[in-house]
Amino acid sequence: QDWLTRSHQWAARLISALDPSCTFTFPEHSGTSPDQYYGLIKTYLNTRDILSAKRILVSLPKNAKKALFTLADGETVMDEFCGYKFAWVHNVEQKAGTIVAYDSSEISQETRSFQMRVHQRATSLIERYLEHITQQARKLEQSDKELLIHTNIFQCWEEQPFVHPSTFETLALDADLKRQVMGRLSAFKASREYYARTGRAQKMGFLLYGPPGTGKSSFIAAVANFMHYDVFDLDLSAVEDNSCLRSLLTQMSDKAVVVVEDIDTADLPDRRETGTPSGKDKLKARKRGADQPDSDKSGPTLGGMLNFTDGLQSSSGSERIFIFTSNCPDRLDPALIRPGRCDMHVCLSFCDLGVFKHLLQSYMRCTDHELLEPISRLLHVDQAEITPAQAAGYLDAHKGDVTAALAAVCSHLEASSRGQHSDRAASLLVDAQA
Ligand SMILES: Nc1ncnc2c1ncn2[C@@H]1O[C@H](COP(=O)(O)OP(=O)(O)OP(=O)(O)O)[C@@H](O)[C@H]1O
């Protein structure tokens, strides 16, 4: 018996000495939770020459735009990294027993794993190779994913597909400002490695202000499409208190554009997390005719909101762009819009000739017209006003007839200019009477 055991051990050692390769296994689950490597490898191998395998599994994961190809059980695909060949095999084993699904059907259990074989000399490269796989897979996951817009209902986010056609090409915006915004966003994208290395949460904030119809929502959609991030549209009136706000923050995906529209209209009491009413709150209460601020008032506080944007819950590895919109930025607490929270304050206003010409070009493919001259005079000399949404409305209403569209814009501007003159005359009269 001893002799047999020893000869088996010798044979195993001999085979191992003759086989210079080493095998790594990546199971689908570690313990009871899904293991991250399994999913990342699956995505990464999808870009390798997987279609050369004989049997391939095809799936369409949630929110994916394209099919995901996976090796079937026992199939192999080769990869190369730093001059070494890595052989990947997908293993699927049937487990004894079945589990019962919610509809009472029985599902057979499987144990899945990827196995990677490589020459022993390449094992020192394994960490670098896995880092490479992780980076590539994360990039692919991000670009292949269908974008979602999430809105908060009670303490949860409800998601829907986000399909908004606005991009920085379609957005009519002052050319310099557009270049600046795109430059900041590109720099943000390129700093991922820097933030990961320094262990900091990567975030950036915009304050968009200006009258209604000047493109604030279109700007937000352009940012989401440019960054390829999901949108989280935070409705503060539906948030019960600060702990609800914190819970929403922790449920957000790592890469997100977080939008708080019309933040000036949200009544955020100035009790910075302590619950103690501040001087400003007392003043507000006195203006309302009350002795004390209403400390029982539900809803998040300014402190809760400040923590939401850069508190401890913002974890390293997350990439978040906060966008606040406001029609009255003067009403906002300076702490909310200071650099670091709102890095860029972007004024979206009435059309100037450049913005109007951009709309004309995208709606009507027209770059020049004799009516542009009176339009330019009305905009710049008479200071007539038209929002991009109003201008887009006229251009859309007269599809295929540039002259009619521009004539309608001219009439609008003339009316606006007359209105401005009568307003100015009225204020002069008031001044004179005073
Ligand atoms: N700067 C712009 N560039 C291109 N299109 C614009 C622009 N501004 C407005 N539009 C057009 O007008 C419509 C309304 O604009 P948008 O909803 O983006 O404005 P808003 O400032 O968010 O308005 P509100 O404050 O009322 O929500 C858009 O669907 C778009 O067609």
UniProtKB/TrEMBL annotation:
GO terms, molecular function: ATP binding; ATP hydrolysis activity
SMART domains: AAA
Segments forming domain AAA+ ATPase: 202-350
Transmembrane segments: none
Region Disordered, annotated ranges: 268-303
Gene3D superfamilies with a match to the protein in the record: P-loop containing nucleotide triphosphate hydrolases
Compositional bias ranges of the Basic and acidic residues kind: 268-297
Pfam families: AAA, AAA_assoc, AAA_lid_At3g28540
Keyword Lyase: no
Keywords for this protein: Magnesium, Signal
One Gene Ontology term from the biological process aspect of the record: response to stress
Family statement: Belongs to the AAA ATPase family. BCS1 subfamily.
Entry protein name: AAA+ ATPase domain-containing protein
Organism of origin: Apatococcus fuscideae
